[in-house]
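fyi for ur records
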Amino acid sequence: MNENTPATRTAPTSAIERREQLLQAMRQEGGTWDWVRARASYVVVPDPRTVRRDLEQLRKANSVYRDRETGLYQVN
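which gave:
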């Protein structure tokens, strides 16, 4: 591995950093996201409730939107 691989990312120290890392991963990988896919993108895998809360906080901040029919999230 080199220093550019995702495995060398540092673990976030706050909820804001954790959400920023999630948003960055969503922008890089694109597509639709559910909480399971989002959870896999974290450096330190959190509780499922934390992942769902992070996705909802990103939605409330208008960084992502949630499709009402599928329930999946996408970057704005």
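The chain has a mean pLDDT of 89. thats all i got for now
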